[in-house]
Specification:
MerR family transcriptional regulator (chains A, B); 5 helices; about 70% helix; DNA-binding; Multidrug-efflux Transporter Regulator, Chain: A, Domain 2; mainly alpha; about 120 residues; MerR_fam (chains A, B); 2 strands; homodimer; DNA-binding transcription factor activity (chains A, B); two-stranded antiparallel sheet
DNA sequence: TACCGGGTTGGAGTTACTCCAAGTCAACAG
DNA sequence: CTGTTGACTTGGAGTAACTCCAACCCGGTA
């Protein structure tokens, strides 16, 4: 797959994908005879995961850690699993934050309704 | 109130509060005889609201708009109300995103559990 | 009087992109 | 065969929203 196809498939922009490769967040990206990047299905799955991790607030430092673990093979699976479990817990914290903000907004909105 | 007290009260750092003032996100901040900022209860409430808006993804451009509306007086209340209602809807979208990420993570975590 | 703990400013550094200019290359039209 | 189009390449500049820092001021205590 070409970079534009991958961008359409995984949700990241072509620029971001190039930036992620340069930053060491994608294990193995091949090149065609023309020098263009060629992405495997594995690459696309990987980038799709990164998209979701990033979209929900994981830092690039964390993602880089996750990537280098993935390159070290199966023996790092427990640690990689733990990173994802921790991130799932982080999602819960964010959900709670949205709820608190929602409450603040509702109070504020009602205060506009009263004095009008 | 001094800036450090406000920081403790509203959740933003002193640096961020100064940055927000410089950027025109706080309507009226007074100064004491010593040249230090003095914050009113209104200021603190305002900054607490900004904290929640920012924490849940509102951009500074939007917050600046909200601030300049607040300075125009009561006639802008309907528009300010609408901004908050729109942001509440945005919170729903973010909640849905967290849910989708959660699902992706669970699938991935289970895939680690299988082959081990 | 010397220091300490607050505050002040302006400016540099950081993260995670995003955009752009200049160049290459393959494919197709005339 | 030549010219244009479109998609890719790189390096580098620009952006948002902070965050940190140096250098300074000022009021109060030992």
């Amino acid at each position: 797959m070409r970079i534009s196809d991958v961008a359409a498939a995984c949700g990241l922009s072509a620029d971001t994908i190039r930036y992620y490769e340069k930053s060491g967040l994608i294990p193995t990206v091949g090149r065609g005879a023309d020098g263009h990047r060629r992405f495997s299905k594995e690459n696309v799955d990987w980038l799709t995961l990164l998209y979701w991790l990033r979209e929900t607030g994981m830092s690039m430092v964390q993602m880089r850690r996750f990537c280098s673990l993935a390159q070290e093979g199966d023996k790092t699976k427990p640690e990689r699993r733990r990173i994802l479990v921790d991130h799932a817990a982080e999602l819960d914290r964010r959900r709670a934050q949205l709820d608190r903000c929602e409450a603040v907004l509702q109070v504020k909105i009602r205060s506009y309704d009263k004095r009008q």
